[in-house]
Design a protein that fits this description.
single chain; Nitroreductase-like; 7 helices; binds flavin mononucleotide; Nitroreductase family protein; Nitroreductase; NADH Oxidase; oxidoreductase; alpha+beta
């Protein structure tokens, strides 16, 4: 074993940042400085994308008014813990351009989110991705054009105390484990285990 961060263990040598990123639900109602916030999107900017289309777009919600708009389309469960979240970022990806559909729009936006989330760890910030919201309502409320897919909503901020959450959420406020590498990696054909 290379590194232990209970219940997270790396089987092979990796940078600790991968284990340190997780998705808490308790956030402090504390402002994130603009320079720090934008550095996460700087990291996202350098993600690879097919033909360098950079299909990702982000809509930030930081003011009370903008955050209220986000809360208005969240599912009930997510609304329970999102009330204190100081920054939301809705991730969109452009689905087509002049030459036709952008097949990998969501894949590319996913890579950008991955970069963003790891830079957040470096900056002492927590992130929590969500798809538990009304996508159609979000499109309407935020005036999103039809040629942009809505991929996910990200909560961004400084992590709060577990005890600040409603009791039902406190027991889930812990980093989760993963299945072993070799259960995800096949060799030669589907389902064929790596030696
Ligand atoms: C696309 C996506 C959608 C998710 N939607 C929600 C959500 O609606 N509500 C929530 O509490 N967590 C949501 N999660 C968080 C996952 O449950 C979490 O990432 C997963 O359990 C792994 O835990 P970790 O991020 O702490 O490592 C979502 C994660 C992803 C990547």
């Amino acid at each position: 074993m290379v590194k232990t961060l209970s219940p997270r263990e790396a089987q092979y040598d990796i940078d600790p940042v991968y284990l340190e990123r997780w998705s808490p639900r308790s956030f402090l109602e504390k402002e994130v400085p603009e320079e720090v916030l934008l550095s996460l999107f700087e990291a996202a900017r350098w993600a690879p994308s097919a033909y360098n289309h950079q299909p990702w777009r982000f809509i930030l919600a930081r003011t009370k008014e903008d955050r209220e708009k986000v809360l208005s389309f969240l599912g009930e469960y997510n609304r329970m813990w999102c009330k204190n979240v100081p920054v939301f970022a809705l991730i969109l990806s452009k689905t087509e351009n002049e030459t036709g559909p952008i097949r990998s729009h969501a894949f590319d936006a996913g890579a950008a989110w991955g970069y963003l989330s790891l830079e957040a760890v470096r900056k002492g910030l927590a992130t929590h991705p969500m798809t538990g919201f009304d996508f159609e309502k979000a499109r309407e409320v935020l005036n999103i054009p039809a040629d942009y897919a809505i991929d996910a909503l990200i909560a961004i901020g400084y992590q709060g105390e577990k005890e600040a959450l409603p009791p039902s959420l406190q027991e889930r406020e812990t980093p989760s484990a993963r299945r072993p590498v070799k259960e995800s990696v096949f060799e030669g054909s589907f389902g064929n285990p790596v030696k």
